[in-house]
């Protein structure tokens, strides 16, 4: 059967052209012959793959007896390579780092490459990242972010209730003063009730912190906050969509997204926020996906 009009979507988000569709006799080392129906022949795919779950549905039982497996990554489909003893990650290096860095935009990837933090490549697969395309602004319950206006270094804290904002701010204040030896001088926020409570206002006055409140219904006056939170939620959804992890893992993904943003370039500063804050370039080699 001619299959020129068909293509297969591969694990690295590339497409392979199907030239024929039909039956295939799979001969196992034991001599057993399994007739596979609806097989797709794509010459550009160098290894044959078969759906284990489809075989099980047809009465077959498959047992894994070779435990010499390493470089094993989470597989979100029901497709396994039955001819290879080693499960390998098929993503190209550019897309792999795109995933490791929480699906940051292409321009940030290119800046990391120009600065020598990542190896330069000429791959265009970032334009086809399915996780980025399908990401939407759904998301988290309660969290609060603080961003240094000088170096754009970000902090994030998860909360069960909105009334925890004041106590969370004190934790943030202690962290900044103890770790960086700096004093908070100005807090810019929208006119949310959690920032206007009697105890919060008195606390800022006692520490000499100036409160800058944006006008009502003008999020553009606090653009750093708005853009950062939107970016974080997009990154979290992209990372969650890439895996089979439950939505309850959003908190870990959110904290990791902030960690990533601190280590990648921004439009406002020449160096990464991490480098400005800590005086040395970030190391990305430990990131995995």
From TrEMBL:
Source species, domain of life: Eukaryota
Alphabetical list of InterPro entries matching this protein: GAG-pre-integrase_dom, Integrase_cat-core, Retrotran_Ty1/copia-like, RNaseH-like_sf, RNaseH_sf
Record GO terms (molecular function): nucleic acid binding
Transmembrane segments: none
GO biological process, one term: DNA integration
Database matches in Pfam families: gag_pre-integrs
Domain Integrase catalytic: 116-289
Name listed for the protein in its UniProt record: Retrotransposon protein, putative, Ty1-copia subclass
Biological source species: Tanacetum cinerariifolium (Dalmatian daisy)
């Amino acid at each position: 059967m001619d299959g020129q009009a068909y293509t297969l979507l591969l694990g690295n988000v590339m497409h392979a052209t199907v030239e024929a569709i039909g039956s295939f006799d799979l001969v196992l080392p034991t001599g057993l012959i399994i007739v596979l129906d609806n097989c797709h022949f794509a010459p550009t795919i160098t290894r044959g793959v078969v759906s284990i779950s489809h075989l099980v549905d047809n009465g077959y039982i498959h047992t894994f007896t070779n435990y010499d497996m390493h470089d094993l990554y989470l597989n979100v489909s029901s497709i396994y390579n039955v001819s290879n003893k080693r499960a390998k990650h098929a993503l190209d290096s550019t897309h792999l780092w795109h995933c490791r860095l929480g699906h940051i935009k292409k321009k940030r990837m290119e800046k990391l490459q120009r600065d020598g933090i990542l190896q330069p490549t000429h791959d265009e697969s970032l334009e086809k990242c399915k996780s980025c395309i399908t990401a939407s602004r759904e998301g988290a319950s309660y969290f609060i972010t603080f961003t240094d206006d000088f170096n754009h270094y970000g902090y994030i804290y998860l909360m069960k209730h909105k009334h925890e904002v004041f106590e969370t701010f004190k934790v943030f204040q202690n962290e900044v003063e103890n770790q960086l030896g700096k004093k908070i001088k100005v807090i810019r926020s929208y006119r949310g009730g959690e920032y206007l409570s009697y105890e919060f206002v008195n606390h800022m006055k006692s520490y000499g912190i100036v409160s800058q409140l944006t006008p009502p219904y003008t999020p553009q006056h606090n653009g750093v906050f708005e853009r950062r939170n939107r970016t974080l939620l997009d990154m979290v959804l992209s990372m969650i969509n890439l895996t089979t992890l439950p939505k309850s893992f959003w908190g870990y993904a959110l904290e990791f997204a902030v960690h990533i943003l601190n280590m990648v370039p921004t439009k406002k500063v020449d160096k990464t926020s991490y480098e400005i804050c800590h005086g040395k370039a970030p190391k990305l080699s430990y990131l995995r996906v």
